[in-house]
Amino acid sequence: VQLVQSGAELRNPGASVKVSCKASGYTFINYYIDWVRQAPGQGLEWMGRIDPEDGSTYYADSVKGRFTISKDNAANTLYLQMNSLKPEDTAKYYCARRAYEEFDYWGQGTQVTVSS
Fold this sequence. Notes:
mainly beta
C-alpha cells in the first residue's frame, strides 16, 4: 500500500492550492481517506474525509466551505482543494487511509506555506 502526495506549495494569502494523494496497492474504493494537517509546533488537526466509493465527504467545521475533498477513481487519486488561504493554514498536510477507527497508512505529507 502506498499513498504518494504532491510536492510542497507556497501561496499568497487569499490564493488557492490543490494537493493530491495517489493511492496504490489496494482496492481504492474500499477505504475512506482522511486529510489531516500539522502546523509548526502543533498537534494533528483533522480536516475531513471522503468515501471513494460514493464520493460522500465530511469536513471539520474549521474548514467547511473553504476546503473541498474530491476523487478521481480512474486515477486512484484523492484531492484536497484549499481556497481563500490564510497564513494560519500553513502546515504539513497528510492523507491517511482509514481502517475502522485508525489510520493504517499515511502519505509522506505536503508542506503548504501561506505567506506574503
